[in-house]
Amino acid sequence: MTFKYERIDKDNVALLIVDHQEGLFQLARDKTPQEFKSSILAHAELAKVFNLPTVLTSSAETGQNGPLPAEVIALHPDAPYIKRQGEVDAWDNEDFRNAVAATGKKQLIIGGITTDVCTAFLALSLREAGYTVFANSDASGTFDVKTAQEANDRMRDAGVHVLSMFAVACELMRDWRNTPGAPELLPFFDKYLPQYGYLTRAHDAALVNGTPSGMPEPPA
């Protein structure tokens, strides 16, 4: 079988924010609260970095599910915001389907709560509708690791690409010399991926005022 690597195309992709609601956030136990909050905000801000069309949706937010975080809404004040009243699968809502279609994009990056329901149900429906789907695994959460793994397996079986936020960002960028590139992505990583941010800071500090550590050169 011939494999074709379909990469995220920043000119043909939209980003979906699915049920990242303050009440549903309490159900996400497969990640620490600190990690997951950061990943939710990173998912939303990634669309700003790459100027991606974005659609927001929530489920029964006047009940226990709660609203989307104010920080997410503030990042996308002009984006379509579909407040579903009962549909579990966002694709069952006509206004949401129309908003996604209106982006004109055939690739979609998604993240939601919970992974096994809000993300997976929508991902499968999108695949059936002919879209290429990239599920940001960092920006989806559920009850436990086992449930997350089962949901990710189910999506992969349907042809959904399941990948990390770092992979999503790098595949959108492709080359550090592009725009957006290093000047835009390094501050983003410093904010949401501190391992990479501090790596960059240490490099810059060494260039500015670093001295050799004294470690011997490795043998040739």
Automatic annotation (TrEMBL):
Matches recorded under InterPro entries: Hydrolase_YcaC-like, Isochorismatase-like_dom, Isochorismatase-like_sf
UniProtKB keywords: Hydrolase
Gene3D superfamilies: Isochorismatase-like
Domain Isochorismatase-like: 14-164
One example GO MF annotation: hydrolase activity
Pfam families the record matches: Isochorismatase
Keyword Hydrolase: yes
Keyword Hydrolase appears in the UniProt entry: yes
PANTHER family (UniProt xref): HYDROLASE YCAC-RELATED (PTHR43559)
Protein name: Isochorismatase hydrolase
Gene source species: Lentinus brumalis
